[in-house]
């Protein structure tokens, strides 16, 4: 059992390391002069992954629910993303980059919902805290952004992000195959699929609030680097601040369920969303660098609470036989639709105003999401 737990932890390290090596630096990479792209074109490129996630992530979830072969689909998705990511090193034309991003995104968007579904099944059987495994993803992300911040300032440059991400994904797929297949088998759904089992009123209400809260959080991962460099920071500082934020996620993920037990799920979700709004508003006021460091810690608190609590809340709102699909829908609309919309909107705001205007927008939307979460008190959690 301990060996299996360690394998799950290593999978999270690999998947989130690969993301941490790419996502925070993708906007900076495509903003280089050699590509000659406008901010709105860069915004379109980085919006492709979340846009495709809207339709593709639920399909991955449905495949998992219908076949019970979560591990096999995840191995395919990791190898596919690794292979395609290498081709970005040779792309310079805008159309070519867009086409590659579409192909890469189809595989990339499957990683988190599928590994989360595997882990939730395992933790339920083994009676292990999901956060104790998920926090290794935060550690992998933190290591990656810190390493890439250092590497990006060397002659290797930002291009090395794609190569490093591909290597780690291949290694992760090898580790994944060592996880016991019987432990991953799920009951195959043989009855006609019923969307009504997913689209219940509490779940839909949660999705709306989740899009308003998680959209700015995920878009921040793309645009925080531009914010830091706009106030005079270096690429190394971007990586270090991401490192601080992600490392601070770990202790809060560890205690998230204890906090929920005392305060309640909805109160924790709403409180974290409100703190996220304060953090964005403070950044929009262009505080001293010391405050930016403190706000990186605050970001870790917010994400460390929201991710595990929201995921478990999704499971409580739907039937067991559609859990994978519900998680796919949740990921598609929060890390997909909302992130795409805020990535695109952020690029437009930068063109007509500045990066400061982007964070004022994040503040307003996060406050609205916090209010919607509070409004969910009238919905009773199932079970």
Automatic annotation (TrEMBL):
The reply to whether S-adenosyl-L-methionine figures as a keyword in the UniProt entry is no
Q: Which InterPro entries match?
A: MFS_assoc_dom, MFS_dom, MFS_trans_sf
UniProt keyword annotations, A-Z:
Cell inner membrane, Cell membrane, Membrane, Transmembrane, Transmembrane helix, Transport
Q: What is its main location?
A: membrane
**Classification via PROSITE patterns:** MFS
Q: Which residues form the Major facilitator superfamily (MFS) profile domain?
A: 1-184
tRNA processing: present as a keyword of the record?
A: no
Alphabetized Pfam families for the sequence: MFS_1_like (PF12832)
Topology of the protein relative to the lipid bilayer: Multi-pass membrane protein
Record field: transmembrane: 7-30, 42-60, 72-90, 96-115, 135-152, 158-176, 197-218, 224-247, 259-278, 290-311, 318-342, 354-374
Places the protein is found = Cell inner membrane
Q: What is this protein called?
A: MFS transporter
| Record organism | Exiguobacterium alkaliphilum
What does the record give as the organism's lineage? Bacteria, Bacillati, Bacillota, Bacilli, Bacillales
